[in-house]
Amino acid sequence: MTMKTSFAFALAGLALVVLALAPLVLPDYWTGVLLGMTGYVTLATAWALFSGPTRYVSLATVAFFGVGAYTVAVLNEVMPYPLVLLCAAGIGMTMALLVGLSTLRLAGVYFVIFTFGLAELVRQTVSWWEVNVTYTMGRYVFLPFEGRHIYWQLLVLAAVTLLISWAIGRSRIGLALKALGDDETVAAHAGVDVTRIKLLLFVISATIITLVGAIQAPRWTYIEPSIVFNPTVSFMTLIMALLGGAMRLWGPLVGAVPLFLLFEWLSVSFPDHFSIILGLLFILIVFVMPNGVLAKFDDLRKGNRA
Amino acid sequence: MLEHVVNGLVLGGTYALVAMGLTIQYGIARIMNLSFGDTIIAACFATYVLFSAFSISPLLALLILVPAGYGFSLVIYKVIMKPLVARAPDEGALEVDSILVTFGLLFVLQGVLLTLFGGGYNSYSFLNTPVNLLGTVVAGNRLLALVLSLLIGAVLVLTLYRTRWGMVLRAVALAPQSAPLFGIDTDRAARTAFAIGGAMAATGGVVVSMFQTFTATAGVVFTMKALIVVILGGKGSVPGAIVAGLLLGLVETFVAAYIDPGLTLAAVYTVFLLLLLVRPNGIFGKA
Amino acid sequence: MSAQLKITNLHKRFGGLVAVKDVSFNLHPGEVVGLLGPNGSGKTTVMNMISGALTCDAGRVNVNGVDLTRMKPHRVAKHGVARTFQLVRPLPTLSVAENVLLSLAFGRKRHWGREARDLVEEKLAFVGLAGRGDEQVGNLTYIDQKRMEMARALASEPSLLLLDEWLAGLNPSELRIGIDLVQHLQGQGMTVLLVEHIMEAVRALCSRCIVMSAGEVIAEGPSAEVLDQPVVIKAYLGDDHA
After folding, report:
1. Pick from B131, B134, B162, B135: which is nearest to B145 by CA?
2. Strand pairing of C191-195 and C160-164?
3. C237 touches chain A (CB under 8 A)
4. pLDDT, tens digit, for every residue of C203-219?
5. Taking CB atoms and an 8 Å cutoff, what residues of chain C touch A183?
6. How many CB pairs under 8 A join A and B?
7. pLDDT above 50: residue A304
8. At C224, is the pLDDT very low, low, confident or very high (cuts 50, 70, 90)?
9. What is the C-alpha separation between C84 and C75, in angstroms, rounded?
């Protein structure tokens, strides 16, 4: 490991410790903000893990997020918590495998369209199942967690996600991902099993997203499909990752932190017009910086050097 | 049984109608418009307002809303899409950009509708008289919806395949790079196509509102179904959109009637995936 | 001597058009063979069926005794077949070195780490790009992009190299460099199938030629003889010149 990497790791470790200690001194409201922020950092990083290099824009974030949360709602009284998380991850993984196997061999646009409706499909199917098979609508989550407990779990997940993203970026798989984002045909002729790598990354990304939903579930004590399958989650994840730059390790984090604070403020100040503002903001972002803030910085740096 | 066939055709007719609009936008203007369904819903609400507040019949409302849909989409194209088209280095980049930007537009439109009308179910009663057709009873508004869909669809097909102007649009759809070499103004063609798509969405909205309840958040489902019809029919293929739309309407109605109304979307998805695996380029797409 | 590449009765149609009709030929180890023919004669289609980019409708492709018929491109690559593309296709977000590293990491052996870096430098030096690994591919000149693509193909350590009009578009001095490079490869015992229009290059490089026209092989044999056959001249230039 080079000096620079060791230094970066030390710095990241220190930041992690500070963040972990924060709830002990912060008031509950700010712990809640940190919790939400960490959730979105993880979502955006996991999203970018797959969608950044492959350029397959996934609009299905909330489908997996919701499945995670709903799994906890269904199973939290039946089995111990760690097992519940494991189940959630397993279900998310299976769902990602099915979706990936059926759409990733096709052109990117089919994938986008499929993921666009996936959340709605899952929501309707879950609702139908609850109404017709289990005769319940809405469930309660009784887990002895306070905000900071959830926050700590999310913090661990965020750190693991960033670590995975870092490791992939340095591995053969990372190189293959960049290559297939450029030109799938060339990558395939160089020996890259394009479909398998896309599938692998999609499954990893979706599993992490499912876990974020599962860990956050105890925050709502009451859960029903329309709450956990809220499409703004997919939307916000996408904006954050794109704004920060989906091709870079720290990009999604850089996008998620300010945007989460902005959204938090907007949703408190303009609760009735939140989605309009969100939409306009998003259009603006696509216009101003299609490759994300970090890419803009890189451009500026290159410009200065030249 | 026959009743379901008729209802399926009514539903399928409206799907075909709106999908034609989307396929024209995607095939000719190269814009994958995720806010398409919200344009439809906006037209539903507009019809509702015109009917309940001003007692304007939905048929008259068509005369107002179709040009309005055209104008609205024209403005959207000029303000939002044109700069994206101009800067896109290739078709793939435009596809991603347009998907993202219309995703944003979706939230804006939906937000406006939610603010104005709230999140509840809306409907109005228009021409709800039973009509005897081939031995089964069908609501008058449904029958009218079917007739309107067929009529407007036929006008569009005739325009595209029988007029010089339609040929220009089809030329742009087939060969966007070569069309300018023949003196075709591709920018104008794209703009017009996008606006026609908007007019079709408005038409669809008026027609749908006559026989279905709607909510401010239902746009996503309409976009989804229209997209599925477009893909199944083959990108940019109007006949494909008609066949696929009718097929989807029938599948949905039969699933609702014989299996469960809650599973229609799941059924639509299943048809979509199965067909994609067999024919990745759509029913009418080139292999 | 057993054949390195053995193609038997290869057949491909696109809709109503028969692009490749009953094509059979062999390449022996260390041979550099030209696959010639006018545009649309099916040469590139044959190349694509060998490399796995297209699947054939009938026939067999055999490399080093392994049946590669209908195999996906990435598996064909792992069985020792590498290719270049008719129009250069560099991977723009990767550096020159990373372009080459990709084939090393996913080719026949899975090289990675320091050992792979040394091999990248070796391949770059071989094609004349020593020390230029950190450059952006977009900044390379045309000939250097072609060199890079050759290095990328060689990096998967192939036993059979498919060059699809690799020399096209070069100026006379660049062409000389390109021909030298292929001759150098030949000296190392590489088997090469060359789709080429530049006759000067074909005469300089290929001991043997296979000529296709309208999807069929119309002539095959030592270059000097084949290129002067009336049937070949007719296929290229039309009846008047025969």
Report:
1. B131
2. parallel
3. no
4. 889 999 999 988 899 98
5. 89, 91
6. 118
7. no
8. confident
9. 16
**How many angstroms separate the Cα of A212 from the Cα of each of A35, A154, C146?**
11, 7, 47
Residue C192: the pLDDT is: 94
**pTM, rounded to two decimals:** 0.85
Q: Which amino acid is at A293?
A: V
Residue A83 and residue B125 in contact, taking contact as beta carbons nearer than 8 Å = no
Average pLDDT taken over every residue of chain A: 86
- Give the residue among A75, A74, A86, A83 at the shortest CA–CA distance from A126: A74
Whether the CB of C103 is below 8 Å from some CB of chain A: the reply is yes
ipTM of the complex: 0.90
Tell me which chain A residue has its CA closest to the CA of residue B112. Answer: A276
Closest by Cα among A76, A84, A70, A87 to A138: A70
Q: Give Rg (Cα) of chain C.
A: 18
**Which residues in chain B are contacts of A238 at CB distance < 8 A?**
100, 103
Please report, for chain C, the start and end positions of each structural domain, with discontinuous segments joined by +: 1-80+194-242
Please give the share of chain B, as a percent, with pLDDT higher than 90: 18
Q: How many domains does chain B have?
A: 1
Q: C5-14 and C17-27: which strand pairing?
A: antiparallel
Q: From C79, which residue of chain A is nearest by alpha-carbon distance?
A: A191
Q: Give the sign of the dihedral formed by CA C60, CA C61, CA C65, CA C71.
A: negative
In single-letter form, the type of residue at position A305 comes to R
CATH superfamily of C1-80+194-242: P-loop containing nucleotide triphosphate hydrolases (3.40.50.300)
Domain that holds residue B77: 2-278
Kind and range of the H or E run holding B51: helix B36-54
All partners of chain A with 3 or more CB pairs under 8 angstroms: B, C
What structural domains and CATH numbers belong to chain A? 26-305 (1.10.3470)
> pLDDT tens digit string along B53-82?
898 888 888 899 999 999 999 999 999 888
* Chain A residues touching residue B90 (CB < 8 angstroms): none
Residue at B143 is within a domain: yes
Contact A108 B97 (CB under 8 A): no
Helix A147-170, helix A172-182: angle, nearest 10? 80
Chain A positions touching C74 (Cβ under 8 A) are 188-194
Give the CATH number, domain containing residue B60: 1.10.3470
Q: Which residue of C has its CA nearest to A188?
A: C74
